[in-house]
Design brief:
The chain has three helices and nine strands. By secondary structure, the protein is α+β, with helices and mostly antiparallel strands. The strands form two sheets. Strands 7-6-5-8-9 form a five-stranded mixed β-sheet, with helices on one face. It is elongated, with a radius of gyration of 20 Å.
């Protein structure tokens, strides 16, 4: 059975917080070596925040699942409810997100970023299934999905259909 894997982007705040906890761990251990259980907990949380990823697994017959990975090793899989697409659209989009929590708020109140997005369309409904900063990678994934699901790709970035 053919499968397409779509690795989802991780929030920048998770990577920053995970790195902060990993840097904090030896400092805490140096100043308080008797609370090893708490230090190990902080270390584990930092490792999970740095190493986790989420991947959408799309199989023939519109069978979708979401995989939770740690450093690329699948830990858990659950069924994912996505649209059964009439067509797939590839386009450029700008996203804005609040930075209102914790130490990350010092980076500014809002962050903007550009992405190439793959969306499934079914009538008037749509769902984002993949974001990438690389057009060629996103186009390749969209074409793989189109072959797998037997639907067409509408590329609004290059203003053409395949």
């Amino acid at each position: 059975m053919k499968t397409v894997l779509l690795q989802q982007s991780k929030p920048q705040q998770a990577t920053i917080l995970g790195g902060f906890l990993l840097v904090l761990t030896p400092v805490l251990w140096y100043f308080n070596e008797y609370s090893l259980d708490k230090i190990l907990l902080i270390l584990c949380i930092g490792i999970v925040l740095i190493g986790y990823s989420i991947t959408y697994e799309i199989r023939e017959g519109f069978d979708y699942s979401k995989r939770f990975n740690i450093f690329g090793i699948p830990l858990w899989k659950q069924r994912l409810e996505l649209l059964t697409p009439d067509y797939i659209s590839l386009f450029a989009s700008s996203f804005k997100k609040d930075n209102d929590w914790g130490a990350v708020s010092a980076l500014g109140t809002k962050s903007n970023y550009q992405s190439i997005v793959i969306k499934f369309f079914k009538g008037p409904k749509n769902e984002i299934v993949y974001k990438s900063n690389d057009y060629n990678e996103a186009l390749s994934k969209a074409n793989e999905l189109a072959l797998l699901l037997n639907v067409r790709v509408h590329d609004t970035v290059k203003k053409s259909s395949t």
